[in-house]
Amino acid sequence: MADIAARNAAVVGGEARTGLHKLMQRKSTIAFLMALPLILLIGILVAYPAGYAIYLAMLNKSMTKFVGLGTFEFLFKRQVFWDVVYQSCLFAITAVIFKAIIGFVVAHFVHNIPTKGQRKWRGMLLVPWVIPPAMSTLAWLWLFDPSYSAFNWILAHFGISGIPWTGEAGWARFAVILVNIWAGAPFFMIMYLAALKSVPEQLHEAAAIDGAAWWQRIWYVNLPMMRNIIAITALFSLIVTFANFDIVRVLTSGGPLTATQIFATWAFKVGIESGDIPQGAAVSLFMAPILAVAAAFILRNISRRGSEV
Amino acid sequence: MAQVTLRKVVKKYDEVMAVRGVDLDIADKEFIVLVGPSGCGKSTTLRMIAGLEEISGGDIAIGGDVVNDVPPKDRDIAMVFQNYALYPHMNVYENMSFGLKLKRTPRNEIERRVKQAAQILDITELLDRKPKQLSGGQRQRVAMGRAIVRDPKVFLFDEPLSNLDAKLRVQMRTEIKKVHQKVRTTTVYVTHDQVEAMTLADRVVVMNAGLIEQVGSPNDLYHSPITKFVAGFIGSPAMNFIPCQLEQAAGALRMRLNDKLSLPVPASRSARYSSFAGKPNLVLGLRPEHITEARPHVEPDQHDFDMTIEVVEPMGMETLVYFTISGAEVCGRVNPNASAAAGQAMKLRADLSNMHLIDDTTGKVL
Amino acid sequence: MANASIAAGAPTRPVKYRSMSRDRRWAMRWSYFFLVLFVVFFLTPPIYMFITSLKSSGEISAAKNPWWVYAPTLSNYEELLGQNQYLVFFRNSAIVSVCVVAVTMLISVTAAFALARMKFWGSATLATGVFLTYLVPDTLLFIPLFKMFAFVRDTTGIELMNHWWTLIIIYPTLSVPFATWIMIGYFASIPKELDEAALIDGATWMQTLTKIFIPVAMPGIIAATIFSFTVSWAQFLYPLAFTTSIDQLVLPVGIVTSLIKGDVFNWGQIMTGALLGAAPPLIIYAFLMDYYIAGLTAGATKG
Q: Cβ of A150 and C205 within 8 Å?
């Protein structure tokens, strides 16, 4: 009797131990399996190509032998490359600054009108962001057309001669930045509006009683409380604008000459159109350090956001 | 002079009248409390005095000047909010000095005022901390400091203690009273807690459904309410309301509470009440402290009766007993030593010298 | 602003104070003024697209007032929708987008559920990794992918270049990271008591996901779906790089490359094509605007 009981106890104990073990294993394995497609997708189609790009950048033009940093040296000597660096930074920084300002200002105007009406204004203001950039840039291309520009038609009525929107380097850059701002400001507006709505109304009332005029309320109450969202949105947009392809490609194709070439369009031209893959890879890789720095700042801001109030 | 005057003040939201005509004169340096249930319009009235709500009708004057259309920053007022409304990105010093900074007050003057206010409120060690590092009570003190520093004509308090736990609330109540004694500024204080109102106010304004029910000192409101609402709102546990019939029998006025119990009307009141004999919907109002255990010596206007106790609540310094008369729940406060047990009969004494007779159709105290 | 009703002798308001109601009125006027200005700025291109689409090429080249349609005509629409080419673009775009949405939602929802609810080894790193992936732009990856496709062709014989269905494989890299991010945010905000109640009721993880999480997080799912669709529909770089034959093109590339024949730009048709191409996202936006916006703001605020 006793030995049967003892044997049963051993069986039960042992079974319980392996059963528990299996249960714990099951939860993590299921979780892992569920995340597996994501891991594979990122691994094969993002991480690996990114690394592969680095390798490709270090091959010679016909991709037969390894030249290390030779491609980069070659790029540094070309004036076009530095133009591309300058133009990419110029477009990104200028566009983001204006997008942020316009977004901030418009968000305040929308917030200022009665809540009932806000929805339809918000709806209208977000349209540029909804239209696929390639299509909307076509509209701008037509608006800027050298012979038929609708803008020049209006300017003619004021006695101003036609502006070569895409024909002259300075105007072409202006045009690219303008379209960038047009397409991206609504995003800023929406984000800032959400941030604005999360500022407690009582703080505005306290500031009003303390003696603050409307612009002082914006400066001392809204701005500090929106600081994190402002930073995150700006950094996000910096990354996206920096790596932008559609607008330049459709509007100017990098022209006139190379006045509006940026990393993405030039990498495309060199890598795919001219068939020099390593050079194309090297050019597009140049965006990486800047993107990495911006990404680091974003991550830092996101984690800091939770600790305010 | 910082008196506040409200004349026929009305507030309408679309079709809803939140404040339906308020007339009030607040004297300089007076501490006045607006009290009432939620939705009675007390906060709305306060916010109209502050300028945070537009006035739909009537006038509000501060220091003799009509301020209907004057923005809050020009009314020379300071406000303490329920949620403190401290600027989260500024430390305590900056929070308190913000208003002065906007007025371009010189830096040493700001420092003097802030340090003085911090001393009054005992928050001097907290000056360089941020609001999120402070406890609820400390934040409330900083909010008060911000108000004191501006040396305004009027202090406005919007339910400042509602977010604090019970014990802290009692503590802060005393603090507020002490501050008012040191910094004698006209104060308008809003709360739904009648204990706060009674303990803090020079005068109490009881509001209900957008109108003022009664204005008076705490004692006046407690002992001489003019409406049933005020009688039942002020005092805890609340006044007992027992439906009764006023009967004239053998030259004496009596109140019949039920088949078995009828109480004599005190002689001092007979003249006042005699005309109402036989009127329907009359209610006897008697505070719990006037229903006690029967004692040996009987005073005039005291009447003993027997009652079966339903619920007994020992409070330590007294015991509350609950019973029912004619469907109304009645509360009495008896000596803890008097033997009272649930389900048992007990001899109770009603002291009618402090009774109130109420006409339930109009809600007025007769 | 009556001040005569206060007791006689009380002075009226000193003039130096501002008027609150007047300030409020002017604030409203300025707000609407600037809002109208900005709406004009933002809506001019799409409206101009529409105006141009109603013009015949005769009217366009006549160079009269470009902002007015003198002889509106639907000929551009008829020609574009009548010929096969445009419809092929539309079809390709539609199939690709719908498939990508399906693939994206499948991958993101399951992965988000695992990351939000079931802590496993490396889940925090993976979550951050997903976010970082979103920051890696397509403009960085298109060149190595180009080479990788050649490699696949050489080794397996499968031709990935110049087929629209290749896009279904690569588009998810653009939509999955953000969609996962949105879903993680929504899933994380579901109280844990709900899963525990389901567990007690006897549900497996998969059942918890399908019967509880997905319905409760439906706004997030709709937002992620809209986002994936819009991103797929608007993609320009990848198809430009990887598809060249006219029957393999998707809408953005098709309009830009094929309607511009040589030096002659048929603007009436181009604008019509662009407008119709922008229509699906716009229509979805018109009906589901709140989900659209929720998806946007969820990314940065729910983090």
A: no
